[in-house]
């Protein structure tokens, strides 16, 4: 049963099952919404999803995920950048009008196809979670070692470079000022409380203001929006044959998001257990709930995929805010979910967001897409992948070249290998690269070099 916590001069924080007073719960929940808002909305803009549906689905998905975990894992779920590339590829293939006009802010036909893929991601995440609960994380690490997950993360970010620069080219001055200001905020505001969590929001606001003299802001979008409106929920296009290729393509991006989610879980576990010790309670040790955490992730994607929101992930930004405020109350996160749902019904908010000029989005994207790629590098580095080992080198090298080269060098980013029903137009580069990496790694697992008298090469002694 959840424990209600009264205000006290000795209060040092809230554990996951604690329930703060109503006033504290609302204010802390609003902080969580402000923290997730910029990135969650930006993904919707980049992928032509509806902003109001994305906000509403984010709130509902977060509440469902918290309930699935028994309110033991405090996470907020926002839109994931990892899926942008394959979503744009899918929409360009099967709903060509989505990206033909920069003025288009919402493309329901493309969204309906992608929704099937997001729900496919949910199924895969849940299956991986159940596998870990049954067999342990070690079994997964053999099939998807860090050299695969890290390399896939790199190509997800770098393959979007062309998209970012295309958007920035709408006005290079605005784009690069936005880029520079956002980087300044992200570097020099870190550790400054809530404002340190919002460099993307501040960068977008500055970029928007700089765009005014250039006439890049279309105020008619605000005037046309209603104050209150029902979010335009769409149902997945299960009967569209293109949806099943999208389902497999999009679901495979979980290869990169699963280790990200697990890393967030480990990080949160350390902070929560430290707080528990300080208040004289037993460590909660949510790090043991790796499998359940992924089932919760999948539950969130089931919800957002069904409603028409962007593919989700638990947010590191919100985790950092929780660490700063020492508030890990899942009741607060559920309150944040309710606030996000209510925001989804404010039509003027979506209208304001949709006035963000393409050049500003491009400036933000140069930074954010590059960060995704660098996070892949960080994963490989943190897991001490032995890049002196020819096996690891081969897997990583092939993934990088087939993924990045395919996305940037092949027509529509597709390998010309037709698989009826699933990939009738060819295999998307990121998906092909992931397939090749997994197969190559499996060969090394099944046919061990040690059988041929080959010794493993020593890694750098960190």
Topology:
Elements: E1 3-4, E2 18-19, H1 22-47, H2 51-68, E3 77-79, H3 84-94, H4 108-135, H5 137-143, H6 146-158, H7 161-168, H8 172-188, H9 199-211, H10 220-224, H11 242-251, H12 254-278, H13 290-307, E4 312-314, H14 316-325, H15 330-343, H16 347-353, H17 358-382, H18 390-409, E5 414-415, E6 427-428, H19 429-446
Parallel strand pairs: 1-2
Antiparallel strand pairs: 3-4, 5-6
Helix pairs in contact: 1-2, 1-14, 1-15, 2-13, 2-15, 3-4, 3-11, 4-5, 4-11, 4-13, 6-12, 6-17, 6-18, 6-19, 7-17, 8-9, 8-17, 9-17, 12-13, 18-19
What is this entry, summarized?
With 462 residues, the chain is mostly helical. Helices cover 63% and strands 3% of the residues. The chain contains 19 helices and 6 strands.
Give structural attributes.
single chain; 462 residues; mainly alpha; two-stranded antiparallel sheet; 63% helix; globular
């Amino acid at each position: 049963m959840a424990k209600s916590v009264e205000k006290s001069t000795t209060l040092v924080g809230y554990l996951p099952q604690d329930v703060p007073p109503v006033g504290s719960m609302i204010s802390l929940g609003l902080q969580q919404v402000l923290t997730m808002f910029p990135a969650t909305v930006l993904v919707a803009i980049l992928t032509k999803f509806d902003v109001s549906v994305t906000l509403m689905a984010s709130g509902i998905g977060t509440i469902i995920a918290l309930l699935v975990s028994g309110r033991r894992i405090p996470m907020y779920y926002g839109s994931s950048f990892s899926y942008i590339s394959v979503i744009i590829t899918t929409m360009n293939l099967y709903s060509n009008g989505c990206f033909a006009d920069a003025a288009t802010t919402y493309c329901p036909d493309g969204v309906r196809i992608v929704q099937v893929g997001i729900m496919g991601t949910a199924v895969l995440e849940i299956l991986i979670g159940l596998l870990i609960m049954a067999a342990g994380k070690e079994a997964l690490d053999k099939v998807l070692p860090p050299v695969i997950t890290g390399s896939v993360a790199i190509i997800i970010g770098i393959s979007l470079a062309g998209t970012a620069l295309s958007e920035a080219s709408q006005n290079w001055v605005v784009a690069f000022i936005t880029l520079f200001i956002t980087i300044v905020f992200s570097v020099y505001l870190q550790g400054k409380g809530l404002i340190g969590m919002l460099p993307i929001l501040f960068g977008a606001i500055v970029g928007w203001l700089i765009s005014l003299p250039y006439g890049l802001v279309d105020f008619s979008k605000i005037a046309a929006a209603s104050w209150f409106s029902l979010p335009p929920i769409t149902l997945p296009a299960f009967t569209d044959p293109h949806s099943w290729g999208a389902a497999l393509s999009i679901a495979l991006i979980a290869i990169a998001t699963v280790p990200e989610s697990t890393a967030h879980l480990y990080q949160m576990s350390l902070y929560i257990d430290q707080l528990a010790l300080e208040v004289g309670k037993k460590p909660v040790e949510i790090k043991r709930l790796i499998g359940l955490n992924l089932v919760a992730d999948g539950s969130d994607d089931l919800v957002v995929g069904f409603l028409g929101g962007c593919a989700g992930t638990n947010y590191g930004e919100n985790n950092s805010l929780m660490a700063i405020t020492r508030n890990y109350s899942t009741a607060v996160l559920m309150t944040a979910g309710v606030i996000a749902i209510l925001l989804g019904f404010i039509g003027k908010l979506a209208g304001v967001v949709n006035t963000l000029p393409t050049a500003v989005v491009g400036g933000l994207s140069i930074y954010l897409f590059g960060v995704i790629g660098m996070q892949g590098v960080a994963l490989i580095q943190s897991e001490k992948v032995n890049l002196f080992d020819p096996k690891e080198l081969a897997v990583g090298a092939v993934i990088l070249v087939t993924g990045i080269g395919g996305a940037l060098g092949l027509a529509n980013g597709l390998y010309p290998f037709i698989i009826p029903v699933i990939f009738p137009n060819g295999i998307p580069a990121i998906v092909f690269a992931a397939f090749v990496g997994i197969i190559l790694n499996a060969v090394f697992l099944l046919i061990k070099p040690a059988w041929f008298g080959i010794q493993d090469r020593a890694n750098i002694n960190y």
